[in-house]
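CHAIN AND CONFORMATION:

***
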Amino acid sequence: MLQTLSIRNVVLIEALDLSFESGFCVLTGETGAGKSILLDALCLVLGQRGEQTLIRKNVEQASVFAEFEYDSYFDSFFEEQGLPKRDVIALRRVLQTNGRSKAFINDESVTAQTLKILGDQLINIHGQQDHLFELSRQRVLLDQAIDLKIRNTVEAAHEHLQAALFNLKAFEESISTNQSQKAFLKMQLEDLKNLSPVEGEETLLLQKREAIVGFAKIADTVASCLTGLTFPKDLASEIAQHQQTLTRSSQPGLEALEEAAKSLDRAYIEVKETQQALRDLLDQHQAHAKELQAYDQRYSELHSVAKKYNIAGDDLYNVLQNLQGQQQALDDPEYERTQLQKQLSKARQEYIDAAQILSKHRTQAASALENNVHKELPDLFLPHARFRTNFVPLSEAHWSAHGVEQVVFEVCMNPGQFFTPLHKTASGGEMARLMLALKVATANQHNLSTLIFDEIDHGVSGSVALAIGRRLRRLGKCGQVMAITHSAQVASQAEHHLIVEKRQEQTTTATTVQVLAENERVSEIARMLSGNDVNDAARMAAIELMKELP
């Protein structure tokens, strides 16, 4: 639902701030007062094309800001676009005299197209460009009455079908390509088989080599330490001699001498173990030197083949596996082709089954929609008009995630005429009323929170206009409905009333908008009935009209 609208420097509007409520609201005013400017400003902030003529004279830029009530319906859009979610949806559009424009959603810069995608979901403006004149929107409207799980099943089945088609096509292309490159494939495969790479071997070799090279840096220190412990005299042997001397000299009561002898014994053992550990390290280093030579040789072999075929060393194993699969396909392509064809056939049948279920539910939804629309037509003085949904089968090449048929709304406005597609029917007073009937019939399944009707009463008056007003009021019970109207009968049914006026001063002209109180509404509706000559009779007629609420 649209909550606020702020306009700055758009044509005749210098500064305007409006607040809106749910229900049915009308905008009235004399011809030329600027009602269309409000609509142009709203279209601008919804992402429509911005013309330079919208910028007020003698200023650098025009801007429009709008806030909408947030609904969880928009969660997927904000997640896909990576935009912040707030309690409201804030849209802003800036149009500059240098031809540039800026668009924002919740203060985040976006493209005008992104703004339009969201704007199309927030507000539906009925007129020549009504969204329901688009075939894709007709399908969306009908499908809103169908369980989401049914639609998701068709979408998933179509995705699987496309994957199966892609796999078979890729296989056939690979067979054709590989046949022409069979000699190269054979040579490459032989080289890789002879090499016998393992997965991630290059990285593993480099890690092992790095460990060996790292130890080589301390080998001299280890050798020097071992030499110091053994040359010119073996430290362990000297300790052993001193320990034996102390032991022989030990006498009763000389506990300190005994402890010293024991300490030397422990020192002897520690030094011997240290010497052996250092010798083992040096022996290991000599063995590592041979391993390093083998690692370098293996790395050279891997690098040579990798460079020859422009393959990363760690990818050689995976490339070998892939080439072996290609060779198998070349040697026996029919087996692989048969398996892929079976997968395609299965996916195709699953898609057809899911699409047929969707088609069945669409037929039921279409029947209910037609009945609901036809119930509305007599009260809108269209007793002979007819509405129906036609399902045009699609060729298999055009099957989509939305099924195997094109949904086409068709209308017949008068007896004896043929049904014509809605998107090819000229807009007019009768068509506007039929579109209103369609919107009333589907009001409970609308995701759109705001509907705007631009002069839907064009060419009608009296009881027909009153019927339109009553339908708009009823539609307002399901959300927010606005109508730009010249009809007193339509205006009399509104819950909220805005008047658009153009005020001229000596050098400037400005459009203003005012919210009317109840008594002011009487005066405005009286003006719409009688023109500028508002008399008591016109006021009484206005009061009577306002009493005729459904």
User: Anything to note?
Assistant: The chain has 16 helices and 15 strands. The two ends are 23 Å apart (CA to CA).
